[in-house]
Every structure is written in structure tokens, then in C-alpha cells.
Amino acid sequence: MMYLYIVELLDYLIYFEAFSFLFFGFSCLATEYMRLEFIRYGLAKQREFTGIVQLLCSLGLFVGAIANINWLVFLAASGLFFVMLAGFIVRLKIRDGFGKSFPALFYTLLSLYIAYNFYDYL
């Protein structure tokens, strides 16, 4: 019975992350705020690539979860793990405080958790 609750929680986390990165990906591509943030990070040329990767990984999470394609969930979560790990490192490098760095750390760990739970499906 406990296993069922863990699986349900994992499904909710996958959809939460997929919706989050659907929003973040579009935001990265379309908002002035994110354009200025990437300039502040010193990564202005990487903004569009980052947004596209976020959207593709979000789509991978949605399709993988809905169609039960576990390897796709693993790949999408792994991709987001690396993107967010890089984002967290950039936040540390530019000396952003804990409040600004925490979301990147949170999504790094969430992506790692999802990928870890789907590793066996490769």
C-alpha cells in the first residue's frame, strides 16, 4: 500500500516539474526579465538554447508520463538536472543569495529524484 502512495507522489512530481518548465521555458524565450537575467549571469547567448532545452524536457516529461515511456521520463529529467545544476552553479558563481539560489537547487534535486526513480527503465 505504501508503494502505491510513493508512485502517486512521483507522478505528481513529474507533472509539477513538467508544468514548471513549460512556464520557465516560455519565460526564458519571451520575457524581458529573463533576457536581463541572462545578461546578469553573463550568459546572454545561451538564453534561447536554455529555453528550448527546458521546453523539450518539459514535453518529454509530459509525453513520457502520459504514454508510460519510462526511458523518456528518465532522459527528460536528466536533461533538466544538468540544466538546473548549471543554473545553480552560475548562481553560486555570481554570489546570489540563498533566496535567489534556492529554486535552482530545488529543481536540481527534484530532477535528480525523478531521474533516479526511472534509471532502472533504461
Radius of gyration: 15 Å
**Which range does the strand content fall in?**
under 5%
Low-pLDDT runs of 5+ residues are none
Shape: globular
Protein described:
This protein is mainly α. It contains five helices and no strands. The protein has helices at residues 2-30, 32-41, 47-67, 70-93, 98-118. Helix 1 packs across helix 5, helix 3 (47-67) packs antiparallel against helix 4 (70-93) and helix 4 (70-93) packs antiparallel against helix 5 (98-118). The longest helix has 29 residues, at 2-30. The radius of gyration is 15 Å and the shape is globular. The mean pLDDT is 94.
Please summarize what this structure is.
The protein has 122 residues and is mainly alpha-helical.
Q: What is the element layout, followed by pairings?
A:
Blueprint: H1 2-30, H2 32-41, H3 47-67, H4 70-93, H5 98-118
Helix pairs in contact: 1-2, 1-3, 1-5, 3-4, 4-5
Kindly list the characteristics that best describe this protein.
122 residues, mainly alpha, globular
